[in-house]
Write a structure and sequence with these properties.
Shape: globular
CATH architecture of the largest domain: Orthogonal Bundle
CATH class of the largest domain: Mainly Alpha
Strand content: under 5%
Largest sheet: none
Number of helices: 16
Number of strands: 0
CATH topology of the largest domain: MetI-like fold
Length: about 325
């Protein structure tokens, strides 16, 4: 099992390096530092001196790959690729184009993102699995048909409808919770209820149907017929055997998103004015702060790869066959 985990861990490095190089090409070759300066300063009436000053203040005046004016390691270190890309591997995100410390911003903003994403994931998982098990338990009945129709209806409606409708109904008409905003400590709970609720409701359709498909595949297996022959009830078969044997695909969908919880939700945080990493990324895109966008792209890649590694490791815990591979 150790060799399996080590092999999966080593696979992550070339993948992450490839993402880093691709990001560098997109930001500094396809879109040059001069283009960034013109976007920030405005396309009209921009002098070359203003562009040069803007690049020098932010470190974009250096050569891209090799600095021939330097000696030794400085030839590599005094380049844009080293300063803006390779240093990301040490999680040195540097300073944004607006002069803010990106690392400090990430540490501050990841907690509101987690406060929304983690409860939504846990509650949504429990609701989706329960709904799927109920549809399988009452399969080939009107209850299952009604559940499938309801799931399709929920899937067919845009998430923006749930956000705007929830804000209007629960926040404005019923005035049960604030429409938007955020606070610290326990005062944040009243601001989190609505976005968590909307995240759970909008995800029931796709989640419940996916888990239902998994359970229907398992319920036709030989071990299920054996369990029934031993006298186990249908409820015991579902919750004790089918659910346990469906844990591998469930872990695939859950473990892989755990690290991405830090990144937050772009749409949810923007609509509810939650100061998380999702709204942080949206604000950086709107203000064309390329340093923040690069940092968030790299961080998202790292977290996604960590999620894949955790998924592979979790396989070894639930499937003995993987440990021998």
């Amino acid at each position: 099992m150790l060799h399996y985990i080590l092999r999966r861990f080593l696979y992550a490095f070339p993948l992450l390096f490839g993402v880093n190089v691709l990001t560098f090409v997109l930001f500094f070759i396809v879109n040059s530092p001069d283009d960034m300066a013109r976007m920030q300063l405005g396309q009209k009436h921009v002098t070359e001196q203003a562009i040069s000053n803007w690049k020098e203040q932010r470190g974009y005046h250096l050569p891209l790959l090799i600095n021939h004016e330097q000696q030794g390691l400085a030839k590599i270190q005094q380049t844009i690729f080293y300063q803006k890309s390779l240093r990301l591997f040490a999680f040195d995100f540097g300073i944004s184009d607006s002069g803010r410390n990106i690392g400090a911003d990430i540490q501050q903003r990841m907690w509101p993102s987690l406060a929304v994403a983690l409860p939504a994931l846990v509650i949504g998982l429990l609701v989706n699995i329960t709904a799927a098990l109920m549809m399988v338990l009452f399969r080939q009945s009107y209850l299952e048909f009604a559940g499938i129709v309801l799931c399709v209806v929920i899937m067919s409606i845009s998430s923006l409808f749930y956000i705007i409708g929830g804000q209007f109904l629960i926040g404005k008409l019923l005035m049960l919770v604030p429409i938007s905003g955020y606070d610290t400590g326990f005062n944040a709970i009243k601001f989190l209820v609505l976005p968590v609720l909307i995240s759970v409701v909008s995800g029931i359709g796709a989640g419940a149907r996916w888990y239902r498909t998994l359970f229907l595949e398992e319920i036709e297996q030989d071990y299920v017929r054996t369990a029934r022959a031993k006298g186990l009830s249908e409820t015991q078969v579902l919750f004790k055997h089918v659910l346990q044997n469906a844990m591998i695909p469930i872990l695939t969908g859950v473990v892989v998103v755990l690290p991405l919880l830090f990144m937050g939700s772009l749409i949810t945080e923007s609509f509810f004015s939650i100061p998380g990493l999702g709204s942080y990324t949206i604000d950086a895109i709107n203000s064309q702060d390329f340093a923040i966008v690069r940092a968030m792209v790299f961080l998202g890649s790292v977290l996604y790869i960590i999620g894949l590694l955790l998924t592979d490791i979790s396989y070894t815990l639930v499937d003995p066959r993987v440990r021998l591979s």
